[in-house]
Design goal:
By secondary structure, this protein is an all-beta fold. It has no helices and ten strands. The strands form two sheets. A six-stranded mixed beta sheet has the order 3-1-10-5-6-7, with no helix packed on it. A four-stranded antiparallel beta sheet has the order 2-4-9-8, with no helix packed on it. Strand 8 and strand 9 form a beta hairpin.
Length: 125
């Protein structure tokens, strides 16, 4: 099973006239065997600090529309809809300036493209 994922940057949410736009980068594809744990990284450009941003993750399976998976900024500031399995979670790796989507016990239905989007940190409360 090959999980492919790409970057989706919601432009216009963060821009200022004096600073370069933040960018997110991800590997172009990842191959995973069923049952494995997958870690998909979304790395923020180095002039920005990932701790100041939340990351939303989306999945697009072949033949399906884009599906919101979760938002993660910190353990206190995160959101995942009830219908998204607990196999999906996220963490931040401050050393690599990245947000990591973790999918445990991967299965065939996880095959698709994964997008990350950047937003200023906000609370779901």
């Amino acid at each position: 099973m090959a999980l492919a994922f790409m970057v989706l940057l919601l432009a216009g949410m963060l821009g200022t006239a004096s600073r370069a736009q933040p960018t997110l980068t991800q590997p172009s594809s990842v191959s995973v065997l069923p049952g494995q744990t997958t870690r998909l990284s979304c790395t923020l450009s180095p002039q920005y600090n990932i701790s100041q941003f939340g990351i939303s993750w989306y999945q697009q399976r072949p033949g399906h529309s884009l599906r919101y998976l979760l938002y993660y900024n910190s353990e206190r500031d995160k959101h995942k809809p009830d219908q998204i399995p607990d196999r999906f979670s996220a963490i931040k790796d401050l050393a690599s300036n990245a947000c990591i989507l973790i999918i445990t016990s991967t299965c065939q239905e996880d095959n698709g493209k994964y997008y990350c989007a950047l937003s200023r940190a906000f609370s779901w409360f």
